[in-house]
């Protein structure tokens, strides 16, 4: 994987004015690993042990983005290609996370937009994701960013706490 900075022209920095950078990093990046671990710990509190879903593995990740604020890693998110399960050109957004002490600054929205840009750069036209009913802030983010509710899929199909969303990222409707 190539490591680099993703920039979005006109994208807001942090609402406090702090410098924000979104970087493509290797899966084993120590800061990104710590962020994924923190996310899984938070999900365990919300849903109980095992509530964070299946583990994410390096060989299934197309790109892993890390969001830094003033040089401090505070967020991450990944994409994987799920064309085999969902049709050609489909990716899945995984592990979107911003540390609690950096929430409500617009950083999740910046990271989500960067992941959508990365999906387009990888030739993906449609994205899917799963979140849960005990994450109302996530559901609100996705709805406000143009994601549409869709039928639960895969391992989430029969889970009553799962909420799945889809978005077409090539300009058409999901």
Description of the structure:
With 174 residues, the protein is α+β, with helices and mostly antiparallel strands. It has a single domain (4-127), classed as Aminopeptidase (3-Layer(aba) Sandwich). It is 26% helix and 29% strand. It has four helices and eight strands. It has helices at 30-47, 83-86, 107-121, 136-144; strands at 4-6, 20-24, 63-69, 72-81, 90-98, 126-132, 148-150, 162-168. Strands 1-2-3-4-5-6-8-7 form an eight-stranded mixed beta sheet, sandwiched between helices. Strand 3 (63-69) and strand 4 (72-81) form a beta hairpin. The radius of gyration is 15 Å and the shape is globular. The model is unreliable at 1-12 (pLDDT under 50).
């Amino acid at each position: 994987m190539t490591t680099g900075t993703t920039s979005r022209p006109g994208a807001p920095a942090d609402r406090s004015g702090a410098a924000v950078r979104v970087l493509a990093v290797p899966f084993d990046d120590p800061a990104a690993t710590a962020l994924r671990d923190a996310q899984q710990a938070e999900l365990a509190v919300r849903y109980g042990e095992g509530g964070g879903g299946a583990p994410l593995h390096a060989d299934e990740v197309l790109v892993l983005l890390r969001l830094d604020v003033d040089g401090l890693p505070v967020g991450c998110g990944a994409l994987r290609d799920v064309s085999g399960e969902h049709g050609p050109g489909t990716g899945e957004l995984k592990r979107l996370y911003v540390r609690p002490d950096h929430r409500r600054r617009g950083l999740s929205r910046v990271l989500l937009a960067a992941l959508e840009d990365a999906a387009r750069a990888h030739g993906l036209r449609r994205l899917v994701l799963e979140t849960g009913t005990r994450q109302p802030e996530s559901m609100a983010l996705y709805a406000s960013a143009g994601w549409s509710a869709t039928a639960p899929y895969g391992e989430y199909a029969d889970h009553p706490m799962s909420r799945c969303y889809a978005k077409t990222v090539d300009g058409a409707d999901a």
